[in-house]
Amino acid sequence: MSFFKILKKSKKSAARLGILKTSHGLIHTPAFLPCATQATVKSLIPEEIKEIGFEGVLCNTYHLYLRPGEKIIKKLGGLHKFMNWPGPIATDSGGFQVFSLGFGLEQRVGKVLKEKDENNLEQEKIKGQQAKLAQIDQNGVSFTSHLDGSIHRFTPEKSIRIQEDLGADIIFAFDECTSPLASYGYTKKAMLRTHLWAKRCLRVKEKKGQLLFGIVQGGPFKDLRKESARFIGSLPFEGIGIGGSFGQEEMKKTLDWIRPYLPENKPRHLLGIGYLKDLREAIKRGMDLFDCVYPTRLARHGNFLTNKGEMNIFKAVYRLDKTPIMKNCACYTCQNFSRAYLHHLFKAGEILGSRLATFHNLWLMRQFIEEIKQAIKDNKF
Amino acid sequence: MSFFKILKKSKKSAARLGILKTSHGLIHTPAFLPCATQATVKSLIPEEIKEIGFEGVLCNTYHLYLRPGEKIIKKLGGLHKFMNWPGPIATDSGGFQVFSLGFGLEQRVGKVLKEKDENNLEQEKIKGQQAKLAQIDQNGVSFTSHLDGSIHRFTPEKSIRIQEDLGADIIFAFDECTSPLASYGYTKKAMLRTHLWAKRCLRVKEKKGQLLFGIVQGGPFKDLRKESARFIGSLPFEGIGIGGSFGQEEMKKTLDWIRPYLPENKPRHLLGIGYLKDLREAIKRGMDLFDCVYPTRLARHGNFLTNKGEMNIFKAVYRLDKTPIMKNCACYTCQNFSRAYLHHLFKAGEILGSRLATFHNLWLMRQFIEEIKQAIKDNKF
Fold it and tell me: Start and end of every tRNA-guanine(15) transglycosylase-like domain (chains A, B) (predicted)?
């Protein structure tokens, strides 16, 4: 496949270096795509994303469908023009958000739902309502908008049409993301539905210049994951997404199960994974692309990523700390501001704090991946 | 006075061009100082303030005294280092905020107090309490913190000591800013107190390298304003601040009343004034320096300044508008984003919207003043 070239394979693991060619430029893999949920990487301008070194971003279909609406973005010339991001863009299928508003709900019991999450879902309201917000059938999913309670329906065909209107370079097949608490029976049923939907997505896709990725599901069950990888891997998708919701150990196991069934020459996107440790493990297991709200959401809560873990800048110990977040960090934030100042900005509720933290966290993320890429190059990974 | 040089006087008005030399660089007057209330021009980095073309900023003593505390800022090397702004900084005396929490309260009745204002004062809480939060006596003012209800006291000596610790280049004498609704008798009493405090501020000031400005008060009363200008003008201040709270007509009258009594060779700072029309009128009447939260606060509410007035980007009419806020604006926001995208950012609650609006509004403010300066140069103002 000429759009994806593997440049080097690690001798010590399944890791690989590649180049993915999209309609709006190259992505050197492994690569992390920062989340631009609502057509903006929160608080940053496109030039800053480039300055940090990211080549692509991921936008959320569910959010943009509801606001401002894919038809509006199409009329305005598509996502690239709308958000003034000239590089590669991926959009997810909308499935994850649709289901996380519905079937995912029971898992959330016990979780403190005090604030809007990255995706601006008003979770308290949802918790209060208790009702299932998403209704699944063989044809698609009906759901209510978290913005105004209006009723909507996604089908595989609709998801593709929306993603064609948005105009991203990488798009995903509509899938059902099951809860890790779901039974074997339900997970299998959902997986088979996802497989049917995958074929429908391939059938309905018309627009040129968009790479369509299928999504492997199957929950925590080995045979289902294998079956799903084999099936999705056999279809003429341009790339493979790995969906699901898992902790680190389950993730590692899942990636080991499915690897033999993934076509070697297709790019593999592990959806929604972003912890540094997880990235390292996933790259070792042959994953090429990642997206996650983790570094940017963390930033907005005053948590800075460092090479020694997360640092919560709200802590009183930083009140008089003249040092930067990380001494050897070359990012704008660390080059210009002290922990004491950042502590003050967050305590005072100043949005400059979020901006500086977002910049730093994404910078660190990028450095982390660059180091891994270098190690693969040097046969040390 | 070597630190302030008048370069040119208008032949058609009292306007003048000058250079004010501070410990951290020059300010070419007339000049607007963006508000960096809590040691940050909300959402922007210092480089952007410079890029827009501003030479100085104004921080608020009241806010920084309460959080993080002037002692902390001193230990961290002073305000310039703390906020990484190498250019001129002014701090106000803290008086305005202290009084706006107390005596100013009765005026606010009827005003919709739904949100935190620029100064992060939790107005609803204050309204609910009803109690006077500030108690004035001849020696100073006792007040409760809007952050935690703790009791504090400002005196002229304390205000100067705090401002010395903060380390700004331009500082202000502690004054009582009376309500325009106050009686003649009360206004006179407060003015006389402000005069006494002015002398105490001059007496107590120790630190070199800070320019101390006295403040003219006197409310809406002609004889009081004249008396205050004459008195403050006679003291060895390095500059004159004009305090008070007024509409455009009262402002013009007040500036006309006091002008004959203001020393020609001292810089004059009209406190808290920022509407474009008011700036023009005040510059005509010989004012040199300005500060106001107007352009930045406006921005955060989705209001863009244009050469045709304010534009509220929330309006549905902008949903599909591909044009920039202003066609001939060279600012980053107008060069890169459509009204439709900015409309989306504000509707979606994205802080990038505030950032882009703040940048544009300050840019327009700067252009507006540059045009006036050019007109003074060309003898057309």
Answer: 14-381
Please check the confidence at residue A107 and state whether its pLDDT lies above 60. no
Pairing of strands A140-144, A151-154: antiparallel
Question: How many of the other CB atoms lie within 10 Å of CB of B244?
Answer: 26
With a cut of 70, which residues of chain B have pLDDT below it? 1, 101-133
Cβ A352–B320 below 8 Å, yes or no? no
Q: Which residue of B has its CA nearest to A45?
A: B352
The shortest C-alpha distance from A67 to chain B (Å) reads 7
Give per-residue pLDDT as tens, A269-323: 999 999 999 999 999 999 999 999 999 999 999 999 999 999 999 999 999 999 9
Per the DSSP assignment, residues forming a β-bridge with A26 are A21
Under DSSP, the state recorded for A35 is: B
DSSP class of residue A182 equals S
Q: Is A371 on the interface with B (CB under 8 A)?
A: no
| Distance (Å, whole) CA A379 – CA B215 | 70
Cβ contact (<8 Å) for A336 and B84?
Answer: yes
Query: Averaged over A325-346, what is the pLDDT?
Result: 98
Q: How far is the C-alpha of B296 from the C-alpha of B35, rounded, in Å? A: 8
Q: What is the pLDDT of residue B180?
A: 86
Peptide bond into A260 cis (omega under 30): no
pLDDT-derived band at A89, boundaries 50, 70, 90: very high
Nearest C-alpha neighbor of A40 from the set B335, B355, B360: B355
What tokens were used for B298? 């406006």
Q: What is the DSSP letter of A350?
A: -
Q: Decide: A217 and A243 in contact? Cβ < 8 Å.
A: yes
Bridge partners (DSSP) of residue B25 are B22
Under DSSP, the state recorded for A111 is S
Taking only the tens place, the pLDDT of each residue in A251-278 is 999 999 999 999 999 999 999 999 999 9
CB A108 within 8 A of CB A123: yes
Residue A92 falls in the annotated catalytic set: yes
Beta-carbon neighbour count of residue B186 at 10 Å? 15
Task: Determine whether the annotation assigns residue B94 to a binding site.
Answer: yes
Chosen for mutation from A352, A356, A358 (greatest number of chain B CBs closer than 10 Å) is: A352
Q: How far is B138 from chain A (nearest CA, A)?
A: 32
Instruction: Name the DSSP class of B30.
Output: S
pLDDT at B235: 98
Amino acid letter at A365?
A: M
Determine whether A256 is an active site residue: no
Pairing label, strands A4-9, A16-22: antiparallel
Percent of chain A with pLDDT over 70: 91
Residues of chain B with C-beta less than 8 angstroms from the C-beta of A345: 38, 40
CA distance A170 to A212: 6
CB of A319 within 8 Å of any CB in chain B?
yes
C-beta atoms of A340 and B44 within 8 A = no
At B111-129, the pLDDT tens digits run: 223 334 444 443 434 443 4
Q: Hey, what domains does chain A have and what are their CATH numbers?
A: 4-292 (3.20.20.105), 294-381 (no CATH)
Q: Do B347 and A68 touch (CB under 8 A)?
A: yes
Write down the pLDDT at residue B102: 52
Q: Token match 């627009």: residue?
A: A207
Buried b (16+ CB within 10 A) or exposed e, A298-328: bbbebbbbbeeeebebeeeebbebeebbbee
Residue B271: both structure tokens together: 């406190």
- The span from the CA of B8 to the CA of A176, in Å, is 72
